[in-house]
Amino acid sequence: SIAYGWRTLACEGPYFLKKNYRGRLNPVYPSSEVEILRSCGLLIFFFSPPFPLFAGASAQSRSLRTMSSLREPLGLLKALLARIPLILKTILLHGIQMSPVKGKQDMRTELTVAIIRSFMATKAPLGKTQKQGIRDPGVKGPMWVSKVTLPQPEVNVRDAVLRAIEDLKTGDETYDIPATAAVEAEWTGYRAGVGKKTPEPDLSEEEKYYKLREESPSDMTILYFHGGAYFLLDPCSHRVPVAHLSHLTGAPVFSVRYRLAPQNPFPAALVDALTAYLSLLHPPPGSLHKAVPASKIVFAGDSAGGNLSLVLLQTLLTLNRASGTIHFHGKDVPIELPAGVATISPWCDVTRSMPSNSSNAHLDYLGAPSAPSDDPAVKTPFTPLPFAPDDIWPASPPRADVYCNASMLSHPLVSPLAAPADLWKNAPPIWISTGEEGLTDEGLIIARRVYQAGIPVVAEMFEGMPHCHGIIMMDRPASHRFFEGFAGFCRDAVAGRVVSTGYLTWLGFKLQLTKEIPIEKACEISDEQVGAFMQRMAAWKLEGEIELQKQWRATARL
Fold first, then answer.
1. pLDDT of the residue at 73
2. What are the backbone dihedrals phi and psi of residue 267, each rounded to the nearest 5 degrees, phi first?
3. 3 state DSSP class of 210
4. Which helix (H) or strand (E) holds 536?
5. Euclidean distance between the first and the last CA atom of the chain, given in angstroms as a whole number
6. Is the terminal CB of the chain with fewer CB neighbours within 10 Å at N or C?
7. Other beta carbons less than 10 A from residue 521's beta carbon
8. What is the three-class DSSP state of 158?
9. Contact at 8 Å (CB) between 414 and 408?
10. Tens digit of pLDDT for each residue in 382-417?
């Protein structure tokens, strides 16, 4: 059992050259598991990067700092030895058909989920965790990466975001007003004919960009936002799946290094996202790229990046209803919508109040969130996020949430699940892919509302699969099917041929069964229940935030 467990973990996790379930060869990506561990310090890369991008702020941060020791072989060995009982228990229960995920996950998936989950139980200072997650492991293998910096725009871009926020407010929501800033990003594309360890050539960023464009001939551009709960990770952590997406579509991918919380809370990331989009449409002076028509751009992102894709779209829709232009680098430019939006396990409910957060917890590495008691007679005190304090967290004044003030949790530009169907009218086609995970409910409800708004929506759900399964287990049949759907939607969106069938595609365990379920029946939670769940959780967190700030002020007076 020990030998089998080690082979499963150490030998079957790579994401490089393998035949997929239809017999085709997938490209070779860098690099070996141990090399990835050394460069990134993330156990998740042991299975195949990038780090699974959640949603659950406390869980991710606790795991990343602990895993920083995995940069050395001794740290890796200690981590695995400490988890031998867990590995043996998982293998044993799976082998004797007594696993709680029986019939939904194979051995390797269950081990992957169990070990990732185990690392999420470790506390960590948030600042050190964040630094670990954005450390650049370098570029090698079959990918081109050209790093660019978009110049700081006028305040008009920020002010446009603020107008959209104000237009969608329903009460006394409060938020920080960010400055505009230069935005870093990476052009990423597929590089043919090289091995997984081939270093990137010694070329200027401009030369690398033109090499990338030679191998990415499509006139489509994918604007990609990484996940990481809005406070973790980076374009460098997503190069492998992003390069693979470029290979499948033939398109360059523009991956944005948006500002991270808690140092830059909402709406800083949204301002950066809008800056990046406008820069594609209207290149600032000195840009490497030529203007890309809106009809050739697809927004895409995983987890929090899926959230950012959707709220950027909502921002554009809101601004379109009020005014037609934004002043950008000296010109009034029109507000245009992209060809489509593609989301991977999108984090649509920052309150984390939907039932699937708990009901699917046994299948996912995302733990069930703390919540108030269902019994009105029982008062459940709010529990602050369990981070060891450092120079960036707790914030001053303290917040209940890393990303935003608690009063903003149910705002449509924070939690797109708060947007009713009518706010999605006139949107471009949207693609939503989810596993059977903590965030399943919110993804399916968004799909339902988009469909009810008359917008083409393509939705799929993979039975038994955890959060962002397609980009953390890239050599699995489910991931191959996921990427085929992802790339196919992007191509169809720019070609104007996305057709909404009104059905969710449900893909069974090991892809042995496929069912078509009416989108309006895919999640039985009513809109009224959704609103009640979100408001209850947001109110509980707001109450906790108020108490935290009272304690903070009392301490400050001492």
1. 66
2. -110, 30
3. helix
4. helix 527-557
5. 58
6. C
7. 11
8. helix
9. yes
10. 988 878 899 999 999 999 999 999 999 999 999 999
Q: What is the pLDDT of residues 79-123, one digit of tens each?
A: 778 899 999 999 999 999 999 999 999 999 999 999 999 887 767
Q: How far apart are CA 77 and CA 80, in angstroms?
A: 5
Give the per-residue pLDDT at 383. 84
The string of pLDDT tens digits covering residues 267-305 is 999 999 999 999 999 999 999 999 999 999 999 999 999
Average pLDDT over residues 341-359: 98
Local structure of 240: helix, strand or coil? helix
Question: Which amino acid, one-letter code, is at 395?
Answer: A
Residue among 245, 172, 225 at smallest CA distance from 546:
172
Are β-strands 457-462 and 430-435 bridged in parallel, bridged antiparallel, or unpaired?
Answer: parallel
Closest CA to 316 of 403, 416, 171, 176: 416
Q: How far apart are CA 130 and CA 119, in angstroms?
A: 16
Residues in the chain: 558
3-class DSSP assignment, residue 516: strand
Beta strand segments in 11-135, E? none
What does 244-271 look like in DSSP terms, one character per residue?
HHHHHHT--EEEEEPPPTTTS-TTHHHH
Around Cβ 436, how many Cβ atoms within 10 Å? 24
DSSP for residue 149: E
